[in-house]
Structures are given as C-alpha cells and as structure tokens.
Amino acid sequence: MPGENLSRDEARERAALLSVDGYEVSLDLRSAVGEDRGDGPRTFRSVTVIRFRCNEPGASTFADLIAPSVTAVSLNGRDLDPGEVFDGSRITLEDLAADNELVVDAQCAYSRTGEGLHRFVDPEDGEVYLYTQYEPADSRRVFANFEQPDLKAPYRFEVRAPEGWTVWSNGAGEQTDGVWRFAETKPISTYITCVVAGPYHYVTDSYARTFADGTTLEIPLGTLCRKGLAPYFDSDDVFLVTKQGLDFFHDHFDFPYPFGKYDQAFVPEYNLGAMENPGLVTFREEFIFRGKVTQASYEGRANVILHEMAHMWFGDLVTMEWWDDLWLKESFADFMGAFSLVGATRFGNGWITFANRRKAWAYRADQLPSTHPVTADIRDLQDAKLNFDGITYAKGASVLKQLVAYVGEEAFLEGARRYFKRHAYGNTRLGDLLSVLEETSGRDMSAWSRSWLQTAGVNSLTPHVLLDADGRVEELAVVQEAAESHPELRPHRVAVALYRVTDGGALERYARVETDVDGARTVVADLAGAEAPDLVLVNDDDLTYCKIRFDETSLATLREHLGAVTDPLARALCWSALWNMTRDALLPARDFVDLVLRFGGRESEIGVVQMLHAWAESAVTHYTAPTRRETAAALLAEGARRELYAAGPGSEHQLAWARFFARTATTEADFELLRDLLAGTAAVEGLDLDQELRWVFLEPLAAHGVVDEKALAEELTRDDTASGKRHQVRCLAARPSEAVKAQAWAQVVESDALSNAMVEATIAGFSQGSQRELIAPYAGKYFAAIERVWAERSIQIGMHVVQGLFPSLQQSQETLHATDAWLDAHKEAAPALRRLVLESRDDLARALRGQACDEAADQ
C-alpha cells in the first residue's frame, strides 16, 4: 500500500466508483484532560458511519484513516477484522453493494504538529484547547472518510467533551447530557469539516440582510480565543470587518451566504494564516495583538478575514475536483480579499499592499525552478501540500486582477454569479469557470487561459523612449522579455504613465495611456508628442502581473527623487521594481540599501515601510558582497536608529523603525541603547515598551551574547504565557554558543518532542546572520539528515526542518556544490522533498549572483 499519500489517479478511480450520501461522526474528547499515561500517543475515540453508493456492485475500494489503532470495522452489517483490512492509513473495502454502510470505531491520536486534532496545553493556566486543521488531507486523522475534495457529503457531528467545555463545529450545536450535537451540514468536502473544543472565551453578535425580494437573512456571528488572550481581543473590530465583508459579497455575488452561522476561532499553534471551514473559520491567534502594532497588521488581519469569507463561495460552495485546480479557490479568495478590502473597509489602500507584499511573494515563487502554471499538475497529496504557494495565491490573484482589466469588472462578477448558481455544492474544473466568463464577456477565454493559467514564469516590461529634436517623445515602446526556461510572451493590459519633476520638487504624473502590450515590442502611439519624461512607469496602477524595468533616465530620476513620487501606489511599484532588480543582480545591493536609507523615512504607507525593512535586511544578509557586509549592516542600523528618533512620537512609523533597529543592531552602542530601553534607564519619546516589543529587543541581545539564559528566564516570569514561552525559546536558541546550537539541533532534528510552534521558534532562533561561522558545521549534518526527517516526521514538521535549516547563510560555491551533490545522489527521493531543496538551492545561487553584482560595483 502507498502509505499516507494519495495519488490523483487513485482519487479519480474512487470518485468514478462512489458517491457519498452522508457521514455521522461521533468523537469522545474527554481524554484530552488529565495526566498523560506516557505509554504511547494520547488518543480519543472516533466512531464514523458512512453511507455511500457504488455504481459497480462487487467492486473494491478503500476508506482513509490515520490512527494508532482500529477497534472495529463493519461493512453492510458484516464485521471485518481490523488487523486484516487496516494498514495504518487505509481500510480495504471489498465486495461493495449498490448501497453501503461503513462503520469504523477507532482510537485516533491528538496532534502536536497542527495537523488533525491539535491539542494545546496553555502554560499560563493549564487549560487544554483543541481544534482541527485538515487541508489538504488530515481529516482522516480524526475520522474515517473518503479524503478527496470531489466526494462531497453532508455531515452530522456529535462530540462528548470534558465538563465545562464548549464545542463548536460547522453547524449550530446544542448540548444535552454532556453530548454536543450539531446540525447537519450542506454537502461539503472532508478537508473543510471542523471541530473546536475547550474553555474558549466566546463573544457573539449577529448580522441581518434584507434582499430586494423582501427576504431577510440572519446570520449568528461568534468569535473565540483562549481565555489568556481575552484581555487583548478586539472582537468589535473583527465583527465590523465581518459584517462589511458579508455586505460586500452579498452585493456582488447574488448568492446569500449558505452555511447558517458564522463563527471565527483564533487558535494556538496554528500552521496557517487561517482556514475557510464553513460556519467555523479558524485563524492563527497571532491575529490577536498583545501589544501595539501598526495599521498594516490590522489591514493584514482584515484581508485574511475577507479572504476566508470569499472561500464560502469560492471553495466551499463550489469546490475544485482535485488539487490541480486549487487556484479556483485560493487565487479567487486572494483576489477577492484585496478587492473587498478596498471596496468595503477602512483600508482603502489595500491594492498598495497587494502590489508590494503579495506580488513580491509571487515574483519569487515564479522564478524558482519549481514554478508551475497557475493550474498545476498535482500528482498526489504531497504535491498538493507544497502548492499552497505564491503561484497559487498571489500570482493567481494578480492574474485575476489582469482578467478584470481584460473583460471588465461587471462581466467578471456576472461570470462569478452564474458560476455559483450553476455549480452550487458541486465540484468544478478550469473549463467550468472559463465557459461562464466567455458567456458574460463575449471574449474567447481559451487563448487568455493558455497564456496566463497554463504557462509558468514572469515577464519583464521595459520602456524604450526616443526623443525628437525638440525634446518631445518621438516614440515610446514597451519591450517584453521572458526567461529562457519559460519563454511565453503574454498579452498584458497595462497603463503606461509619464512622470516629471515639478518646480516644487515633486515627481508627478502628467500623462497616462492604457494599452494592450503583446509580443516582444509594442509601440504606445498615444504618447507620441508628449513632453520628455523624467520617469516612465510601465504598469502604472498595477493592472497586470509583470516585473517592471526602467530605462536609464527613469532609473537616474529614481536615484534622486524616489521619495518625491506623489502617488503612493506608483511609489510602491517603483520600490518593488527596484527590489526585483536587486534580486536579479541588475542593481547592486548597496544601491538598494542606500535608497532605503535615503527615502524610506519619507514613505507614508506603513505597510510599504515594513516591506522595505524586510527587503533591506535581506539585501544585507544575502545580496551584499561579503567584504562589505559588516559595513552595510552598520549603516543600516545607524539609519534605523536615526529614523527611530526622527519619527513622530507614538506613531506607527516610530514603532516600525524601533523594531527594525532592534533587528539590525550590530554595535556595542546599539546593544547599550536596547539594554537601557529595556531597563528603563533610557527612553525614546512616545515609544511604549509593551511586552511584545520587549521580546523584539531581547532577541538581538541574546544573539550577540549580551543577555544570558537567566535574563531570558526573568523575562518569561514577566510574561509567563504561551506567547512568552515561544519568544523565550526563540531567544534561547539564538544565543552564540556551540552547546546552544547543538541542543537546538537535537531538539528539532533528532527528537519529535517539540510541538509545531516550538519547532518553528527553535529554528528561527538557530539561524542568525551574525553566526555564520558558528552554524557552518551543520551544513553537512543537514544533508545527512533531511531524507530521514522527511520519512519519519509529519509533512508540516518536515517542511519546517527542510526549509528552515537549509544552510542559506553558508553562501559559497562549496555549499552550492554540496546541495547539487545531494540532489544528484537522491534522485529517487520524495518529489516534494527534492522540490524544497531545489528551491533553497535557487535562493542560494541567486544570493551568490547578487553578491557578485555588489562586488563588481567596487571595480
């Protein structure tokens, strides 16, 4: 048997054979509390009844279940021997009838990796909290099922829980005699069923909407978190965004929210940002802010709330048949999240964040050797797990933004409305969506789909300007290029804009033309005769998905006037383009850092400021020539310190620069200031050192040996919470000691005792840019261990280890050769594992090219 993986071919065969009428799932979670017996994994009882039909009586198939043991299996009243039919991940079912009933009584294991039914013990008060997380295929860790998205069915859940607990599921629930029973769901896929249980803090509200036909929809709203986070929980803002989103989607989708109630649970040790379980959306609890954060954090949370809400239609109501068409839910949710954020909430500049942050994720992913079309080739579940990436989310959303420009907003939305009505509670493929868009737009979508959805790679667009004798534009052309590995030149709907420096010093737009760019060279005839520009911005307003390049005049203008670009979106696009040039070794890292230090303090958009901080830090760590790295780091810290004092007291910009200064601190004077701020013997006017900021300041002090284990223990005493423990673990692993690194390595690589959150924290502390020599010996250990780790650990932990411990700081040809040697010697390794190593190798090779570019600037 193939173990826990499931191939696309197997899923198609099973879907052709079966249809599922319904599930009844009974879970007994009373074992979640009490002492751990220590004689194996802590388990709970799971009893599942599945009623399903088979269109070939006498045929055989299998049900999915990952569990330590199975007590009993019954098929159509016939008892089966669990030892014969259950192999640890599958239950063999033979001689099926036309109508079947399968009953499985199993002992399933609580999870510590965030997969399946996760069990968390709050160190603050000892309370136990449970929640489920399944995507793409972990519901089989909780109950027996047919684990694939196209075998939808209604579900009834019944849960026995410890006294004093509350239990939530997809449907509305009632408790009787200690048993929680939940209303039957609509037909949904296995991976979006959900159970949350424990002594959570719960807040309620309601939403009502009267439609044009006079009918009224009422939706009970709820939101919950751990009791320890209740003092920080701004549930009113969560409800505000929720109601704004429901109004927006009802206005645009013409299909009332179909899943009854709408609960939102903020849960601990969550692997994802959030998950779109209908009626019970789950989020990582870090979206509850324990300290002061910038508006970018609130905007990010609102975007995620709206992204998950969009899934109620794109993904839950209508679901892809198989993970090949994952984009049918994730690309749409990512686009609709930004679209509704701008259209319905206080975050009217959401497209700036999209252009700067989400697209940066897409551009990186689309240049990796593992890049793939938006509609991907997903062979199995491991492929599916790794395809929740920047292509499927951010590139897909960018492509949809381009589609809206191509067919028009109303045609796009009318296509969505017809899609929902036509395929409600069903499953679809690419062609199902394209057909309705052809109906509403009148355009042939096949060519567009081939170019944008079925090919990989990102194009670059560069303006070429020819001036006449009078200094006016004689010809302006846009040159399109593609990588040799992905040579597709796509049709782009773009806006080309001309900017000039005014007498007052502002860099303002004075001409703009929307046009179709197609092929290698496109002349923008409507700009002929315009005054000579100081800056040409291709893709003004960010209509298409491409890398922007600059002509020499435009680049020279930005070097002197970037901070003077008056339009914030245009400014963000320029920053993004310059960062792409740095990553592509077309702009020395020192030049990008210099631009951040000169103009970053003038940036009004806080989300852009924080993105610039991340990029500048990465430029120094990865793309700066080794001979200049120490100098560049000191300049970055000096600039961050300067902007910290220059920012408005108490402003979000001050907070952002304070965090950045801590991350870049390099000198004794830097450490002294951080230490004095923590001790209260120094102050920056308006800067409030809440607990979260204290931990931010402590990490660099720990990494440079300025504070010791005792100081970190004392800080944990101040913040003896789950959040505080994660911070402490990260700081402990950051200390510059051979013994510390050996212990951290052993805890993560040689043991499975740590939870997913603690694994992540330990890895984050382990790799410090200031400790390259200290962790250099672990490069060889990494390559010796990763295949074993991948085979023995869950895929989530495997991903943490393989990505997080790759020797990316050992930036040399030797490390590149070691990576190639492992790849050559492990051609038969799991494709998903090879993909992760290939991606890390590509990042390393890119860093070496960037360093060479930066080194060449000295010559």
Explain what this protein looks like in three dimensions.
The protein has 859 residues and is of the alpha+beta class. The protein has 28 helices and 28 strands. The chain has an eight-stranded mixed sheet. It has a five-stranded mixed sheet with strand order 15-16-17-19-18, with helices on one face. The model has no long low-confidence stretch (mean pLDDT 96).
List the helices and strands and how they pair.
Layout: H1 8-17, E1 18-28, E2 43-54, E3 61-64, E4 69-75, E5 78-80, H2 82-85, E6 90-93, E7 99-109, E8 116-121, E9 128-133, E10 155-160, E11 166-169, E12 173-176, E13 179-182, E14 195-198, E15 201-210, E16 216-225, H3 235-253, E17 262-267, E18 274-275, E19 280-284, H4 295-311, E20 319-320, H5 327-344, H6 350-366, H7 381-386, H8 391-407, H9 409-423, E21 427-428, H10 430-441, H11 445-452, E22 460-467, E23 473-481, E24 492-501, E25 507-517, E26 521-523, E27 535-538, E28 547-548, H12 552-561, H13 568-583, H14 589-599, H15 606-623, H16 629-646, H17 652-664, H18 668-679, H19 691-703, H20 709-718, H21 722-734, H22 738-750, H23 756-766, H24 772-775, H25 778-792, H26 795-804, H27 813-825, H28 831-856
Parallel strand pairs: 1-10, 16-17, 17-19, 20-21, 22-28
Antiparallel strand pairs: 1-2, 2-7, 3-6, 4-5, 4-7, 8-9, 9-14, 10-13, 11-14, 12-13, 15-16, 18-19, 22-23, 23-26, 24-25, 24-27
Helix pairs in contact: 3-4, 3-5, 4-5, 5-8, 6-8, 6-13, 8-9, 9-10, 13-15, 14-15, 15-16, 15-17, 16-17, 17-19, 18-19, 19-20, 19-21, 20-21, 21-23, 22-23, 23-26, 25-26, 26-28, 27-28
